Give the backbone structure.
Amino acid sequence: MDTVIINRVDETRWQALDDGRVVGHGDVAQRPDGRLFVSIDVWRDEAFGRLAAAILADLPAPLHTLVGEADLGLKSRWEQAGFTAGRREREYVLPTDPRETGLDPSRTPAGVRILPGTEADEGLLRALHRAVREEAEAGAGWRTMPAEVLPRPNGPVPLDPSRFTVAVRDGAYVGLVRVAPVPRRARIGLVAVRAGEQRRGIGRALLAHALVVARCGRLGLGRGDESNTARSRCSRASAHAGPAATWSSCAT
């Protein structure tokens, strides 16, 4: 007999109870681009489906979740709840010691200066960010980028200069790297160089400086859609640790 009941604790949390004892919980979080990501953790197998059904009934579609590729049991549970695979991503962990990476922050291409975002002109930084977005949209598409760098819907792109490092050549802003201070490990959310300035070592120099900024341990490289082949090649060339594949799924 199924005695599990579901209570919505608040706007973002649900609990599964059996005879007054908590046997599972579900959570929802909104990403910067407005997408809702849900997670469920249970101590009784039957509680998962009940929690998923309650969350789907309470929240507007589409909903998203992340599932490790090797976790076939969890993937199956989400599929039974009505979720389908959205895209396949990879995540890498990078060392930050130049002796391990081979990236020397003191070596930059001729005529290029690397500036902390706090010393950059915010107007020029925003203009560079817009230009990078337009170039990405014209190519693989901004939808292939990690959630950390997506814009808010129907509003300006959130931009905190303290999270950026900028490459400047002859007074023009030509490249940037963004480090997102997520829990447990800083993450590189974006490395971008203007199309006409690529293949000159600017991206490598930006990455070297980002790793110096994150010398507190190891640095996560932002998830990328595997269909974005240019990004995948860059990731594999830079990574010193094995990838962890994830599934991004959504229920409509």
